[in-house]
TrEMBL record:
SUPFAM superfamilies: Arginase/deacetylase. Its EC number is 3.5.3.1. Belongs to the arginase family. This is Arginase. Binds 2 manganese ions per subunit. One of its GO terms (cellular component) is cytosol. GO terms for molecular function: arginase activity; manganese ion binding. It comes from Tetraodon nigroviridis (Spotted green pufferfish). Coiled coil: none annotated. Keywords: Arginine metabolism, Hydrolase, Manganese, Metal-binding, Urea cycle. InterPro entries: Arginase (IPR014033), Ureohydrolase (IPR006035), Ureohydrolase_dom_sf (IPR023696), Ureohydrolase_Mn_BS (IPR020855).
Length: 322
C-alpha cells in the first residue's frame, strides 16, 4: 500500500505574545526548518510549498484588558494567521503551522474551518488551554485559545479589542484532548460541563496509546468523517525528551507515544491541518536539550505525513538488476 502524495503548505508564525514577549518561542519556525523539515517531507514524496514566515504588526499601546495580556497583538496576529491558513486550504493543501505560542491555534483553527467547514480537533498538550478571559490565572492567551473557538463557550467570552472577527467554529463533541496532566480548576470544570472527550495521562497509562487512538478516531468519526485539525503542543511530550518549552510538565508522553499519535492520525486519511507549537530554544539548558526538542518536533511532523517506523519507500522504487 503506497500513500498518495499530498500537497502540504507550511506557514511559519514567529509569535510569542500569547505568553511572554521575546520569550524565544518566536524562534520555533526557523529552528524546525533548519532541522531539515522540508527536505525530509519531500523525501516522503510530499509536494510541499513553504509560504514563509508571517510578519506581525507591532502594537504600541496594548495594556492588559481585565488581566488578559497583549490582547490587541494576539487578536491581530491571529486574524493574519487565520487568513493565511484559509488561503493554504483554498490552495488544496494540508496546512502546517509552525509556532510560536499556542495562542496561534485560534487563527489556525479558525482559518481552517473558514475554508473547509466543520472540523474535528485533536489537541495534544499537557494543558487544556481552555481558560476563558475571565478564569485565566496568568492572563496569557496561550492558555485560553480553545475557549474562543468553541460554540458552547461563546456566551462566556467578553468583548475584547481585535477579537471581534472570531466566530466560534468548533463543537465540544468534535474535540478530543490527549496528554493532559496540568489543569486549572476552571478548565476541569469546563471540560466536565461540556462533556469534552479527554484522554489525560491517566487514560494513556490505563489504556495504552494504541487504544487511546482507536477510541479517538472512533469517537470523532462516529457521526461523520470531518477533516481533522491536529494542534500539537510540544509540551505534551515528557520534558526529559522535549525540555525546551515554556511550561514543561512532568509525566508526559514518551517519544514513542507522541509519534504513534501522528502515525495513527496520518492513517485516518483525514488530517487536514496541523499546528506544532511552543518549541522554545531559550528554555533549553543545553544545546542537546534544544536539539532533542527540535528533532522531536520534526519527527512528529514527519509522522503526520506518512513516515513509518517500519520504513518507507517511494511508489516508483525499482530494484536494480545485476
Ligand atoms: Mn498548549
Amino acid at each position: 500500500l503506497h500513500q498518495q502524495a499530498r500537497k502540504v503548505g507550511l506557514i511559519g508564525a514567529p509569535f510569542a505574545k500569547g505568553q511572554q514577549p521575546r520569550s524565544g518561542v518566536e524562534r520555533g519556525p526557523d529552528l524546525i526548518r533548519a532541522a531539515g523539515l522540508l527536505h525530509r517531507l519531500q523525501e516522503l514524496g510530499e509536494e510541499i510549498h513553504d509560504y514563509g514566515n508571517l510578519t506581525f504588526e507591532d502594537i504600541a499601546e496594548d495594556e492588559p484588558v481585565g488581566g488578559v495580556k497583549h490582547v490587541r497583538a494576539v487578536g491581530r496576529a491571529n486574524q493574519t494567521l487565520s487568513e493565511a491558513v484559509r488561503a493554504v486550504k483554498m490552495d488544496g493543501r494540508v496546512s502546517v503551522m509552525l509556532g510560536g505560542d499556542h495562542s496561534l491555534a485560534i487563527g489556525s483553527i479558525h482559518g481552517h474551518a473558514a475554508a473547509v467547514g466543520q472540523l474535528a480537533v485533536v489537541w495534544v498538550d499537557a494543558h487544556a488551554d481552555i481558560n476563558t478571559p475571565l478564569t485565566t490565572p496568568t492572563g496569557n492567551i496561550h492558555g485560553q485559545a480553545m475557549s474562543y473557538l468553541l460554540h458552547e463557550l461563546c456566551s462566556k467570552i467578553p468583548t475584547l479589542p481585535n477579537f471581534s472577527w472570531i466566530k466560534p467554529c468548533v463543537s465540544a463533541k468534535d474535540l478530543v484532548y490527549i496528554g493532559l496532566r496540568d489543569l486549572d480548576a476552571a478548565e476541569h470544570y469546563i471540560l466536565k460541563l461540556l462533556g469534552v472527550k479527554v484522554f489525560s495521562m491517566t487514560e494513556v497509562d490505563r489504556l495504552g496509546i494504541a487504544r487511546v487512538m482507536e477510541e479517538t478516531s472512533e469517537y470523532l468519526c462516529a457521526r461523520a468523517k470531518k477533516p481533522i485539525h491536529l494542534s500539537y503542543d510540544i509540551d505534551a511530550i515528557d520534558p526529559s525528551v522535549t525540555p525546551a518549552t515554556g511550561t514543561p510538565a512532568a509525566g508526559g508522553l514518551t517519544y514513542r507515544e507522541g509519534v504513534y499519535i501522528t502515525e495513527h492520525l496520518c492513517q485516518t486519511g483525514l488530517l487536514s491541518g496541523v499546528d506544532l507549537v511552543e518549541v522554545n530554544p531559550f528554555r533549553g539548558q543545553t544545546e542537546h536539550a534544544i536539539q532533542s526538542t527540535v528533532s522531536t518536533a520534526v519527527d512528529l511532523l514527519l509522522g503526520c505525513f506518512g513516515r513509518r517506523r517500519e520504513g518507507n519507500h517511494p511508489a516508483d522504487f525499482i530494484l536494480p538488476e545485476p
